[in-house]
Amino acid sequence: MGATAGGLNAAACRFVIPRLASAAIQRVKAIIPVKPAKPVRPAPVEPWTTRMSLAAKYRPQTFGDVWGQPTVVRVLSSLIQRRVGASILLHGAVGSGKTTMARIYGRGLNCSAPSADGSPCLSCQHCAASDKEIGFYEYDVPARGGTWHAIDNWLRTDERNPRNSKGFVVYFLDEAHRLEREAAEGLLKRIEDEDETRRQVFVFATTEPGRLSAALRSRLIELEVRPLDLETSVRFVSQVARDAEIAFDPAVVRLLAGLKNGHPRNLLFGLEQLQSLGNITLAEARRHFDVDHLEVLRNYVAAVADMDFGEALSILNAWNEEGRDKVSFVHALLLSTYFNDILRRPLQANPLLDSLTAGERAHLLAPFLKLFGATSPVDLRPYWLEMMRFWRTSQQAPDEEAALLLFADFHILLAELAERKSEAVERAAVSSQSENSISPLAKPPVLKQVNGPGHGFITQADVARVINYASYLPQLHGVWFNSRVKLGPILRNDINESEARKLHEQFWIEFEDRVDVSANPSFARLSVAEREDGGFVSYSALHIPAAGGAEILQELRTWARNWRSRTQDAELVFEFDVKLETAPPKIAKFHWGSALLLCGGMAGNLRDQDSDGSERDLRDLIGLPRTKKMRRDPSRLQCDPIVTASGGLSEAAIELASRLSMAPISAFDAKAWGHLRDGWEIEEYRDRRVETARRAQALRIAELAGATPEDLALIQASWEGPLYRPRQWRGWWQTGRGV
Q1: Fewer C-beta neighbours within 10 Å, C or N terminus of the chain?
Q2: Is pLDDT above 60 for 42?
């Protein structure tokens, strides 16, 4: 049957699309109205006062007053202590403290009795003098001009001599990236001429170091003035507030610290705003700084968890933020929840989210626990990974309409995840009648415990899982296994199998966190457990993202050795061996060799039908080499599961990729033994990407046009199944062989 636009067949187009198209434009306009520009909240006006601002009052005078700049302080302190007047380039964001560091450096060079760390003493006659009196001259390039004529006149004005005969003349040029080329060349010559005497020092400050000429930068010591991290920012603001006797709520200070990006001047300006408002609550502070989005996020989360996507779109449309900002907030919510609540590892993802109380976080998470039938946040991990993967791989929304299209697609994903979760629960409630099905149309098998005959050994169903999952990886993700790992205990005496299994599981949890599975959607692992020589052993095939190549491999090896050393008290020493294959001509062979290695513990009495109807040894049918390594003789395990998978081969990942009637094809289930390892999966992957995008776009358009659930179901029912949809390549099942 042929396909038409959007992946719909003729019947669907005849009955569904005409009914929707007539109202589509008006409905989309109703969902995405043209909105006026977001109003800008005016900054609060301070009552007139003669008091000194906090930024001026608490400007550091010595290196001991500086927060969070150990490298800059160390270098400048050393230069002052050694009386070396080196020219410096300070770069960092506006308000980070570049000018402050330049002034401490200039005064320290000219101080009669600098302290042990090179700071000016603040008591000698030179420290008491003005900047110009001690020989510190400042030039604002944007305000006074960046031409060589202007710079040269400034350098020649008056006689530049320090009051201290043993001191230095320090020329400070702020916003130096605004220097014109001729001025940069003239300054370079001046700096080179002063190299021998070192009595004249040039300090440049800039927010854009890349715009300075390479020749000029090569003559300077480059120092980056970095933003303060969140915890340092909190301590800094809290300390100033206490010194200035400003009452504050710690939660409000944390919100302020996150919003001001670690720049001291901005932090102090923000503290002054809070001072003018009094001891305000966290909710009031959120409103004041225009980040009061918690209620919007709560309502949105509740709507999507109830599958009320119409209400969810209405909430998004009424949210007075740019489309890209809405996308950013929801993505940050997912990241913050994943690390802080699911993994329980602190992560600062967004100032608003970082300021949430435990109760507020629990309130946001509760609808998702209900949606996915989870009893604990950790149970949400596979679903969260898929949701984060969606936003990470989606394009940045350039406008409101594009943002709402992305959210509509996200809602479809949530509905499918919830539906597949329900199906999984139903399958778990009854015994599977299709576990040994040979139909290529069967849904991907779900990993679960296998009881009955053969329990404790690799069964035929386990072999089917390994071979199918090895085929699904290139079909669904376009990648191959590129590494192998064997974990096995070296025993002093007998070992508790349950303990050994837990150690293996813990190893993989920490390994996958090290690889950062959430940031590497192509990562996948497939493992088989065995009992060899009385000990618990696991064989694993993995796809590790190849970016970084040998460096990643070496890092993982080093990490594994360190991890192994931490397990010695458990009387287990893991054998860790990993090979990373990246050469395209060899990768498919390596992939299937790794998959077959996982099947090496299967018993010799497993048989299946060949294409001519005769029964044969399953090891021969799948092509298992006749070697001791590949045809092992393991002992019985006492507990399940024998086969486990994660990453791109997890149950959730496979179910997600199977949405839109796009389940993968199984040559093993079809007993097409000759096509198990001939590489057809990559052609299928390329075709799947096009067709999946086409079908997803059809649903997005229909949803935005106001389609009912029945309409959407009719559209999806019109799509051809995995075997029969049109393709750009000819599948092996279409040749009449092996089916």
Answers
A1: N
A2: no
